[in-house]
Amino acid sequence: AGSEKAVKDMPIELKVFRLDQDDLTLIDLPGITRIARDGQQVDGKELERLILRMSRRYCEPQESVILNVVSAMVDFSTSASLQLSQELDPTSRRTLLCVTKIDQHAEEGLAKKLKVAASQMRLRPERVFAVRNRKQQENEGQVSLLDARQRESDFLSAHDELQAGAKQCGYGLGVAALSASLVDIQIERIQETLPATYGRIAARLGELRRRSSEIGQPLGDELSCRLLAIQLIDQCVDSLARERSGRVAVVSSSAVGDGGSAAGARQASPVGETAELTV
To answer: What's the pLDDT at 205?
Structure first.
């Protein structure tokens, strides 16, 4: 973000409208890294703390669905995002795993890798997905999303290992399957957390109504404000006067009970000062 390529803890909100897309609210967080890139004027450890703090804030609420996007080329056991999701969602009820760049995984064993990852994370197989996104060359060549999805479908259809693994284990193939699953899980989370959310909103509204009633009716014009200010000032003056009168009354009663000391004080100063001195 900005000319220094820094990571900023400030959201950039976008609304994307398409007729053929599912209705989803997504929060795209930066990848967790310990090494600052060229042009980033920040220490690597501080960068990691910043990204982790952002990730925790958005992923910790029970209403959130955690979607881990991991490259097929890396070791899943060392993924910082997977470790964080297991910490925030130990039962994996709201966690999904999306393995991308599957077309760059040349050697065999990808299906087994997906199966082991699901087992280690205690994920249901239908919460694991293998997808092919657009390559950098395709982005630069302005390949449309429609063409990219067709290329993904052709790749998956020709990948016997993934097809057999999907039938055996039950994980999903393709962005379309992932998107449909996200919609279902989002509905599930809303249904499960809505009663508690409604309760918090109702409690907050009750507190605001109580505070509003204490404030009183709104003032409609400048004259009303002036009159209220004068009224409040008069109340303060009366309160101070009553407090001072109370102190004098206490002094007077003390003087009657202890004539010697009180009399000496009265001889030394005027009546008002005697009251304050005795108190």
So the answer is: 92
Q: Encode 126-135: b = buried (16+ Cβ within 10 Å), e = exposed.
A: ebbbbbbbbe
> Could you identify the residue written with the tokens 């450890």?
45
Q: Which residues pair with 100 in a beta bridge?
A: 71
State the Cα–Cα distance between residues 272 and 279, nearest whole angstrom. Answer: 11
Q: Which long-range contacts (CB under 8 A, 24 or more apart) does 30-35 make?
A: 30/54, 31/81, 32/80, 32/81, 32/84
Name the H helices within 77-133.
80-88, 110-120
Q: 114: exposed, middle or buried (C-beta count within 10 Å: 0-12, 13-18, 19+)?
A: buried
Cβ contact 83:117 at 8 Å: no
Q: Average pLDDT, stretch 269-277?
A: 39
Of 249, 242, 251, the closest CA to residue 279 belongs to: 251
Q: Which residue has the tokens 């990204």?
A: 51
* Strand partners of residue 70: 99
